[in-house]
Amino acid sequence: MEKQLNKLLADFVVEYHKLQHFHWYVKGSDFFTVHAKLEEYYDEINEAIDEVAEIMLMNKMKPASTMKEFLKLSSIAEPKGAFTSSATVFKAVLADYKHLLDEVKAVKAAADKANNYLVSAKMDDYIGMFSKAIWMLGQTA
Ligand SMILES: [Fe+2]
Question: Which residue, 7, 39, 112, 139, has fewest beta-carbon neighbours within 10 Å?
């Protein structure tokens, strides 16, 4: 479970920076709305980062805490560093969020097996969060 939670933590950290990148680098006539929406998304993920690390500490696990570790553990692809349209941004975030939803579901399954109610219940929050975002991002295409 520790390994799985550290992978999730690392994916959240890289996704946080990716969302902030898109917040800065999205370009087009819909800039104002997309720029604001992306800030909501990274604020949400930022809260989740702290929650995962603290839930690990409550369970006597050691959360990864350096950029070096996060980049090594994460499987989220980093963005290219160029100005992008909202359509491309939404597509990229949708793909990442689908991946993250699968990942939190897998963590929940492992937590249930280990009778870890704390981790299991927290994953429910993220399942709700990603499911809602996936539905909304799907509406933009
Ligand atoms: Fe900003």
Answer: 139
First to last CA, the chain: 36
Task: Report CA(107)–ligand 1 centroid distance (Å).
Answer: 31
Distance from Cα 33 to the centre of ligand 1, integer Å? 12
How much distance in Å is there from the Cα of 20 to the middle of ligand 1? 8
pLDDT in tens, 117-132: 999 999 999 999 999 9
Which tens digits make up the pLDDT trace of 64-87?
999 999 999 999 999 988 999 999
24 CA to centre of ligand 1 in angstroms: 7
How many angstroms separate the alpha carbon of residue 55 from the centre of ligand 1? 28
Instruction: Give 39 Cα–ligand 1 centroid separation in angstroms.
Output: 7
Using only C-alpha atoms, the chain has a radius of gyration, in whole angstroms, of 15
Give the three-state DSSP class for 84: strand
Residue 135 sits at the vertex; the CA angle it makes with 133 and 137, to the nearest 5 degrees, is: 65
Note down the domain range covering 109.
2-138
Q: How many domains does the chain have?
A: 1
Global confidence as pTM: 0.96
